[in-house]
Write a structure and sequence with these properties.
InterPro entries: FecR, FecR_N, Ferrdict_sens_TM. It comes from Pseudomonas vancouverensis. The chain is of the alpha+beta class and 325 residues long. The chain folds into three domains: 94 residues, no CATH class; 129 residues, Jelly Rolls, CATH 2.60.120.1440; 73 residues, 3-Layer(bab) Sandwich (Phage tail protein beta-alpha-beta fold), CATH 3.55.50.30. Strands 1, 2, 3, 4, 5, 6, 7, 8, 9, 10, 11, 12 and 13 form a 13-stranded mixed beta sheet that branches. Strands 15-18-17 form a three-stranded mixed beta sheet, with helices on one face. The longest helix is centred in the N-terminal third of the chain and has 17 residues.
């Protein structure tokens, strides 16, 4: 999750309070007493002052609150809907300015795609040619089968592909495209993950041929079974041995083998709505094990029971931080 470049993360409590004030203001004009209370609040500590600066930036970018957040809060001061709205808004404040643009882009990509999954959801598809595609969390794809090709365009997220032979006379190639390039399956099973500015490919069976999107003059690269690589639109990464657990998510598991807690938390956050982070004091703690992604709260409980960390939640679980025990 993005934050201001070079700026430390804000206190979750200050962001929650700023979110509450934004929602109260969206409901109508503050009374004189409320306005005085708000003025005292925003100058009472540096953290609150910075949190309100984020709130003002968000307002200037949007011209107000996202309607779905504001509507959830109306006339329900203690309702679950209001708590959910506060949680979403506090997370949004944490990632302004880059976060809103990313949120809108992903939202647009997800809802206009042929097939999609929500955060924490997986979906299995059987395509017309007998191939199978599994969508990981927060994934969006388009599928185009015509007389010349079988194409999957990965807009966002991660997929596991098991190709089938094409029984048409044309023997159409099976292709997967991302913003960074075009991959052709050579009788294979593989995973593709769309990252910010690169694509991650891991080949489990067969081989995959890659062409870069912006460098047609560069010869294609073939990745064989048991290998993985990252590539941008202009450069190939090195082919290295594939992580044995790269497709564990398709079985509902997140695997860790002597993994930094910070890296594990970053992966787990993909399967959980809201904001999940760990304190720098435990970021380098090494963990191992198999953890369920279908129940992220259970995974957090397993971490707390096994390692010297505690999980502190705010905003009805929307904001969770792991601290030293």
């Amino acid at each position: 999750m993005s934050t201001f470049r070079g700026e430390r993360q804000l206190d979750p409590q200050a962001l929650e309070e700023a979110a509450e004030w934004l929602i109260r203001m969206s409901e109508g004009e503050l009374a004189d007493g409320e306005r005085s209370e708000w003025e005292r609040w925003q100058v009472s500590t540096p953290e609150r002052h910075r949190a309100w600066a984020r709130a003002q930036l968000l307002q200037s970018k949007l011209g107000g609150l996202p309607p779905t957040l504001a509507m959830s809060a109306l006339d329900r001061p203690r309702s679950p809907e209001r708590r959910a709205a506060l949680g979403k808004l506090a997370v949004l404040l944490a990632v302004v300015p880059a976060g809103w643009g990313s949120w809108k882009l992903i939202e647009a990509q997800q809802w206009s795609a042929d097939y999609r999954t929500a955060v924490g959801q997986r979906r299995e598809l059987n395509l017309a040619d007998g191939s199978q595609v599994t969508l990981n969390t927060a994934t969006a794809i388009d599928v185009l089968f015509d007389a010349n090709q079988r194409l999957i365009h990965l807009r966002e997220g991660e997929i596991l592909v098991q190709t089938a032979a094409d029984n048409t006379p044309q023997s159409r190639p099976f292709l997967v495209s991302t913003r960074q390039g075009l991959m052709q399956a050579l009788g294979t099973r593989f995973t593709v993950r769309e990252l910010d500015e690169r694509t991650h490919l891991a080949v489990l069976e067969g081989a995959v041929r890659i062409e870069l999107a912006d460098r047609k003059d560069v010869a294609p690269l073939i990745i064989n079974a048991g290998q993985q690589t990252d590539f941008s639109s202009r450069h190939f990464g090195r082919a290295i041995p594939a992580d044995a657990s790269v497709s564990a998510w398709s079985q509902g598991m997140l695997m860790a083998d002597n993994l930094r807690l910070a890296d594990f938390v970053e992966e787990l956050a993909r399967y959980r709505s809201g904001f999940l982070r760990c304190h720098p004091a435990v970021a380098d703690l090494r963990i191992s094990g198999a953890f369920p992604i279908n129940d992220t709260q259970r995974t957090l409980n397993m971490l707390v029971q096994t390692y010297p960390v505690v999980a502190t939640g705010r905003l009805s679980g929307y904001w969770v931080t792991l601290y030293p025990a």
